[in-house]
Write a structure and sequence with these properties.
Order of helices and strands: HHHHHHHHH
Number of strands: 0
Low-confidence stretches: none
Largest sheet: none
Radius of gyration: 17 Å
Structural class: mainly alpha
Strand content: under 5%
Length: 190
């Protein structure tokens, strides 16, 4: 399994269905959910990558993956945000998580509870992704860590793939359209 396969799996995390699940559980709107995910997911992947350097953490992750299968991506399976909070404690510790929540809340102009809710809801999906990656590629956690640590461009491309509405590979036109739509909604309400 290479970087392209991981990219394919990451599409599950940013699919419309996953966005809708996270939006429902976190109580946000889909645009807020997308904004938070686009910034939080690369940070979570960096934390997984950093933690995976430790043999002890990799052992925890293998045990945790036994309880977090890719079933979370199924239509009839809901997301457990409380479980997500526990997962995040292992991925980035509570103080780092709170730093991330504060940073994203301030930079994205979102409510703290929305940011926290989206990140907590994203964690079980991230575990589902890691489970799928290890099962579909017959990888051990060391192999997965190597792929994640060599996928810097993949992480930066997550934002582009979420924002590129017309699929042309260029987000400038999409950002401009979002800005125009925001101005219309904000200043020209009927």
């Amino acid at each position: 399994m290479g970087t392209n396969d991981i990219a394919w799996l990451l599409q599950d995390l940013i699919s419309t269905e996953s966005i809708n699940k996270i939006t429902k559980v976190s109580g946000t709107d889909s645009n807020t959910t997308k904004k938070i995910i686009s910034q939080a997911l690369p940070e979570l992947l960096k934390s997984v990558e950093k933690q995976a350097e430790s043999d002890k953490w990799r052992t925890w992750l293998l045990r945790a993956l036994e309880n977090h299968s890719g079933e979370v991506f199924s239509k009839d399976v809901s997301i457990d945000a409380t479980d997500g909070s526990k997962i995040l404690w292992h991925i980035m510790w509570n103080s780092k998580k709170q730093e991330l929540v504060e940073q994203l809340t301030n930079s994205l102009w979102t409510k703290k509870q929305d940011t926290d809710g989206v990140i907590n809801s994203l964690a079980p999906l991230l575990m589902g992704l890691l489970w799928k990656a290890t099962k579909s590629g017959n990888l051990d956690i060391g192999d997965l860590w190597k792929i994640l640590s060599n996928s810097g461009s993949l992480k930066s491309n997550l934002l582009t793939s979420m924002l590129d509405k017309d699929g042309d590979g260029d987000i400038k036109d999409d950002l401009l359209n979002m800005g125009v739509n925001y101005i219309k909604k904000s200043f020209f309400k009927k």
